[in-house]
Amino acid sequence: MDYHLSDYNFEFPKELIASRTAGKGKTHILYCPKNGGERRIMKAPEIVDLFRPGDCLVVNNTKVIPARLYGETQFGGQVEVLLVQALNPSEAGEARFEAKVHPGKAFQVGRELKLAGVRTFVEEVHEEDGNRVLRFEKTPAEMEEVMNKEGHVPLPPYIDRPDDEDDKKAYQTIFAKYAGAVAAPTASLHFSEQMLEDLKAKGVYVAEVTLHVGPGTFQNISVEDFTQHKMHGEHYELTKENADIINKAKREGGRIVTVGTTSTRVIETVADANGFLKPQKGVTYAFFYPGYKYKIVDGLLTNFHWPKSSLILLVSAFYGRENTLDAYKMAVENKLKLFSYGDGMLIL
């Protein structure tokens, strides 16, 4: 099989990039029957009708942190950082984070800056990706308070506007419980509480996984042979309770439907050869592209993804390249909204 990234490109007008969400339960979903049936556009709440009693919906319960901080150098220059993940505190109990920084020249090892009003020290530079290790003159608990007060919602780079108060709720899913993501698992943004109640009333199981989405989700693939691409690691956890729910549904013949590429990566990472799960936690570097055989996922609800991204490759591995690009073409022709705040597609 040839692996050409350029085969996963598609054209779209910029005005289809959603800069605001229509609201939970108010988006549109392109239904793509896996058996090759006719695709159709539905209102998000109507997808409840496509589920059967005994099916299992798998969602990601990560919570987005206000990870973008602004500040200044000792000389008054403006800087910004995106906190990627919390690290072990210093011996003195100070919070430490890995972060993406801008501009890089302001963040030399040993430099002192102020971020969100907090004295910050640059401890280390990661050569492979340019990320910095930053130490803050606050405890982790104090730093969490600072972020909640002064931090900004880390909107994706293609949403070309500053974040605001609306984003604090809009960019958080109804399943959000455990803080740690710097990007939302956006397929879950289609769900309202009412849709969730309706699914449960129908006898659909709901299981949760945790995957703290990192900025690697927006990372461009820079090689034409995409099999050479290296994914960023992301922390995940599947508890015994949730593994049991998914395994029960599978044993009873229910379909396992993942909400988003993040939930997909978790359960495909932990599934055995027969598609059953054991509870575990760790870091996944899973990268799925055409040729991969899914072990457990029967259906996938996902957003439309950036051209030539690892996410469109994951979808193409599940639905086929031509099907995926045909679905994207239909979405563009029907002016569906694209990407994180946009509409979605359900392959089932």
Structure description:
The chain has 348 residues and is of the alpha/beta class. The protein has 2 domains: 5-64 and 167-347, QueA-like; 68-150, Thrombin, subunit H. Helices cover 21% and strands 26% of the residues. It contains 7 helices and 17 strands. A 9-stranded mixed β-sheet has the order 2-1-17-16-14-3-12-13-15. A 6-stranded antiparallel barrel has the order 5-6-7-10-9-8. A hairpin with a 4-residue loop joins strand 5 and strand 6 (78-87). The chain is globular.
Task: Indicate how many domains the architecture comprises.
Answer: 2
Structural class: alpha/beta
CATH superfamily annotation of the largest domain: QueA-like
Provide the spatial order of strands within the biggest beta sheet: 2-1-17-16-14-3-12-13-15
CATH architecture of the largest domain: 3-Layer(aba) Sandwich
Low-pLDDT ranges: none
Rounded to the nearest angstrom, the radius of gyration is 21 Å
Overall pLDDT metric: 96
Q: Order of helices and strands, N to C?
A: EEEEEEEEEEHHEHEEHEHEEHHE
Give the helix tally.
7
* Straight-line distance between termini: 26 Å
Largest sheet: 9 strands, mixed
CATH topology of the largest domain: QueA-like
CATH class of the largest domain: Alpha Beta
Spatial shape: globular
Helix content: 10-25%
Number of strands: 17
